[in-house]
Amino acid sequence: MGKLGIFLKKVLKFLFYAMPVIFLFLIIYIFCLRVTKNRVYQTQKDIVYFVNKVKANYENMKYKDFNADYVSYSEFFPMDVKIKQTENGNEMYSRFGGKMIFLESPRSIEERRNYLFIKREEKMFKARYDGLGAYIVVFTELRRDECIDLASVNWKALVPNFMGIEASYISHREPYNGVENLNYYLLEDNPGEDYKSADNGEIYRQPMTKWQAMTACDCLRQNCTVALKFY
Fold first, then answer.
1. Other CB atoms within 10 A of residue 148 CB
2. Strands 89-93 vs 83-86: parallel, antiparallel or unpaired
3. Domain range holding 163?
C-alpha cells in the first residue's frame, strides 16, 4: 500500500470515530439555537405585554420608584416570569436566566438637566423629585448569541413608544458599561449630541442591524447586557 493509501486509510479511520461526535455537537448546537430563538420570541411577547400594562397604569407618564419590586407587585409581566423574594424586595429574572433591572430615565434635555441638578443634594432630591418621563428595562447576564438576537429585534415595530437600545458587555475593567449612555444621552430632543461617559456601550435610536449587534455584544460567557428605553 502506497503512502497515499495509508494516508486515506487514516483519514477514513479518523472520520469513522469523529463523525458521531461532530454529529452530536451539531445536534446540541441546533438545539441551543432553537432554545435561544424561543426565549427571544417569548421576551418580545413579555415586553409588549409589559409596556401595555405600564401605559394603562401611568396616566401622567411620570415614572417614580420604578424598580423590580414595584414592577413585580404591579403584575406588569406574565405570571410565569420568575420572581425571587429578597430582604431588599423582589427581584425579577428574564427568560434567559439573568436579572432584569428597571429604572426611570430622563425623556428630554430639560428633564435630564433638572434631574442632575436636584440629585446633587439628598434633601433637595427628596423634596423635589417627582419622577421622570421615560423608563429602561435592562437584561443582564446574557450570552453573546442571546445578546445579538435580542438586540437585533425590531422593537420599534413591536412597541411604538420605543426610544432606543443599548447593547454592551460588563467586565472587571469596564464595570460601568450597560446603561449610562442610554439613560442620559438618548433623549427625544438631543439627536447628534456629543457626549462622553465611562460607559462604552453602543446606543441606537433605531433597531440594530445584525452587524451592529455583533459589534456591541463583544463579550465572553454571560456578561452581555441589552437595555431598552421607552416613554
1. 24
2. antiparallel
3. 3-230
